[in-house]
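does this look right to u?? zinc ion version
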Amino acid sequence: MSKVLEEVLAANARYANSFGDKGNLPMPPGRRFAVLTCMDARLDPAKYVGLAEGDAHVIRNAGGRASDDAIRSLVISYKLLGTREWFVIHHTNCGMEFFTDDVMRGLLANSLETAALDTNGFHDIGKGPGSTDGEFIDWLTIKDQASSVAADVRRIRSHPLVPKGIPIYGYIYDVTTGKLVEVPEATEAGRAK
Ligand SMILES: [Zn+2]
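got this back:
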């Protein structure tokens, strides 16, 4: 068994042993909010916004971007499960700032192995062949965190399936301090009407 698989199963056994009465939690999030944030390993949304099991929805993807699939989850979150406030939280030092669509497509076209990152950005160290299928994906990279948070809040706000009454807050999580920093332009754009 792989070391990671072994560790994961052992950790889960410990968790299940002290599961308590969490088996009785209702499906709708008790605190009626949802967070869209990045998958970055340094971010633990349950800790940085103070969640326990059953409290809130957390939707994660690379960058915490308002992709079609993130919007699908948010729509399910309010329409079927009753959330009333949403947060879009990107973060400093996000990996999505270190490449562009062209770079990603070029890397994948060369090799499917993991690339290396140095001061000149990502470059391939692995063997080919790669694949040109990366051409068909919008990688939703980020140039500037405040702009990406604002753009995502605007996209969600103006989506025809999102009710005007849900406030959408925009924040940047600082990976050096653990603090959330508001993006006023995003919060303004996300104001409930
Ligand atoms: Zn990130």
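The chain has six helices and seven strands. idk if thats expected tbh
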